[in-house]
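Consider the tokenized backbone below.
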């Protein structure tokens, strides 16, 4: 729909083939691939990171608590349904684009393997392996 509107609005070519090729070369040159070694680059130890799900409202260093399928801030008392998604995006960008149930449980400060598995399954992430060897791929969260 939008494409047809765009084509009808701009019937004449706005750029020459030469200009398009030059723009493509420039964009490709400027495109920096994602650096997965962020922590190493800034000399930050993985253990120095604040783990858990942080409140989007008060941004304190106090992690949210998981209570009856929700995340509750102990400071401002706000309730969030999907606050764990941002924490997993942070994990994917800072630590690794793949996570196990055990790593996720530790990173989100959860107490139950079942809750952790449920959260990971609810995101419909690509996974490899099985049972304790299951690895969830977080790429789809950061694209």
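A designed sequence for it:
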């Amino acid at each position: 729909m939008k494409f047809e509107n765009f084509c009808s609005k701009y019937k004449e070519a706005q750029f020459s083939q030469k200009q398009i090729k030059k723009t493509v070369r420039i964009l490709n040159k400027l495109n920096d691939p994602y650096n997965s070694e962020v922590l190493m680059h800034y000399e930050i130890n993985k253990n120095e990171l604040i783990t858990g799900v942080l409140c989007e409202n008060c941004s304190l260093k106090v992690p949210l608590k998981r209570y009856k399928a929700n995340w509750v801030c102990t400071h401002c008392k706000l309730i969030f349904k999907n606050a764990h998604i941002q924490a997993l995006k942070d994990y994917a960008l800072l630590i690794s684009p793949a996570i196990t149930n055990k790593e996720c449980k530790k990173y989100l400060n959860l107490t139950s393997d079942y809750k952790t598995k449920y959260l990971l399954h609810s995101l419909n992430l690509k996974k490899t392996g099985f049972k304790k060897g299951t690895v969830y791929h977080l790429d789809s969260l950061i694209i």
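The chain has seven helices and six strands.
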